[in-house]
Amino acid sequence: MEISHNETFIEIYRLCYCKLKLLRLEGFKIFIAEDDVWYSEILRYHLELNPDFEVRTFDSGKKLKAALHLKPNVVTLDYSLPDTNGKELLAYIKSESPDTQVVIISGQEDISTAVDLLKEGAYDYLVKDDDTKDRIWKTILHINENVSLKDEINILKSEVEKKYDFSKTIKGNSPAIRKVFRLIEKAISNNITVSITGETGTGKEVIAKAIHYNSERKKEPFIAINVAAVPSELIESELFGHERGAFTGAQTRRKGKFEEAGKGTIFLDEIGEMDANMQSKLLRVLQEREVVRIGGNEVVKLKCRVVVATHRDLLQEVKKGNFRQDLYYRLLGLPIDLPPLRARKEDVLILTKHFIDEYAKENGVNPKKLSEQANKKLLAYSFPGNIRELKAVIELATVLADGDEIEPNNINFPSTDPLSDLTLEVKSLKEYTNIIIKHFLDKHNNNVIEAAKELQIGKSTIYRMLKEEHIN
């Protein structure tokens, strides 16, 4: 279950840059509202030295208002137009075209007026003098840089959202993965807490991001924290934040991850590793939907969605006394259990092709093909590291393959699985059978019933072999 967000940030940035170049063909619009025709033309001439600037002039507030539907990037506004004053026109511009930046130009230096206008939303306040045109030039260049940055951020967000269109980018067609698709659909249509379980490498964070970026919260932050990776003495500060001086080393106020998430999503990975003391504090936060930074009194109301993940069976951890029962039920919400790759063998070759194509795209080479024997070798392996392991194996095989085809000897498994190279050594049928039985008993912690179920044989057959063949 791999989403193609593994493309490098540089590639995404290149795509964004190309889109920005297309956007900028429309030009950076500057409107000059000035009743002094001579001064207006001086400003116009000066600004049009930049070929990317589209400059228009207006000698009254009425004419400027009529053109605001064109959404200029900047308006340079004479504070004393004949038919209106700067403050009223500023308010009108900000209401009709909120993204337009307004630079006030006045014949008088009045500090109180300048402060008032800046509070009302003006970008800058300039006094007419010999240096004004140069100061306007610098101010507008600065605004242009900010607009470009905003465009880049919006396009990057758009590209990220496309990458998390799970119906197109989560690879697989097995019954197990189709069940996951249905649960994701349910998760994105509401704000219920989601608990994701699955072995390491099955793609739990990928699913969390898919839920976030396909939900109504997609424009808001996605904040992820691996609970197991943060020392226990620091986890409270990481999650809830702290005030300056709250403890040794707390030199400034710091927002916690819950506060950073805002109206977005907080993803708590490996929640099963949280200690009992912190579990109690997290439960209170989730119940009250509010946090108080360490060392502070201010109550911060929470508006974020909570998604958690773990490779552990939390219900079993509750029974063992390692996880609070009340927190378990608070977090359960909509459970999504990700199947291991060995339970969705139909998807191995689909994922393999995806990783080969992705590698070829990232490295500017033609994609290679798997030989029939290489296919068989992949399908015979159980992939204990799941999708993460498959991706690493395929990337290495692509590098090692000399020709256009990946052969079995190019495929190297980092884990030791007796079934992966089963046919590479000549053994008797009885020896092969013993290896297979031993493998599935190890896999299921010597649970004969589970091993027999997966092998689709009777449990009595395994008991007989355990007795006769001395499998241990």
UniProtKB/TrEMBL annotation:
Swiss-Prot/TrEMBL keywords = ATP-binding, Nucleotide-binding, Phosphoprotein, Transcription, Transcription regulation
Q: Which InterPro entries match?
A: AAA+_ATPase, AAA_lid_NorR, CheY-like_superfamily, Homeodomain-like_sf, P-loop_NTPase, Sig_transdc_resp-reg_receiver, Sigma_54_int, Sigma_54_int_dom_CS
Query: Response regulatory domain: which residues?
Result: 29-143
Q: Which Pfam families match?
A: AAA_lid_14, Response_reg, Sigma54_activat
Q: Sigma-54 factor interaction domain location, by residue?
A: 170-399
Q: Which CDD domains match?
A: AAA, REC
Instruction: Please provide the Gene Ontology terms (biological process) for this protein.
Output: phosphorelay signal transduction system; regulation of DNA-templated transcription
Q: Does the keyword section mention Membrane?
A: no
Q: Which PANTHER family match?
A: SIGMA L-DEPENDENT TRANSCRIPTIONAL REGULATOR YQIR-RELATED, TRANSCRIPTIONAL REGULATORY PROTEIN
Q: What is this protein called?
A: Sigma-54-dependent Fis family transcriptional regulator
Kindly list the organism's lineage: Bacteria, Pseudomonadati, Bacteroidota, Flavobacteriia, Flavobacteriales
